[in-house]
Design a protein that fits this description.
Layout: H1 2-17, H2 32-43, H3 48-58, H4 66-76
Helix pairs in contact: 1-2, 1-4, 2-3
Length: about 80
């Protein structure tokens, strides 16, 4: 799980750095999509709490799996992701 929560946002970031719009989607955009969105925001320097609030407010049906959030909170993301 930690690998996916590192790899997916890094892939999104690499593609975004090239310029295109990147769509991240799962079946219902309730857990996996928001979790990747949170991880991507953290990669771009947003703290975990703010990233979670912003992503969940943008996706009204978002309900990230508790385990996914724990993985992010406990260091699935490299320390250099979280600036500030």
């Amino acid at each position: 799980m930690a690998f996916v929560l590192r790899d997916a946002p890094e892939t999104v970031a690499a593609l975004r750095d090239e310029g295109p719009v990147v769509l991240v989607n799962c079946v219902a955009a309730e857990s996996r999509t928001p979790s990747v969105g949170i991880a991507y925001a953290m990669l771009r320097g947003v703290d975990h709490e703010t990233a979670t609030k912003v992503v969940c407010s943008a996706l009204p049906s978002a309900s990230p799996n508790r385990r996914f959030l724990q993985v992010l909170e406990r260091g699935a993301v490299p320390a250099q992701w979280t600036r500030g």
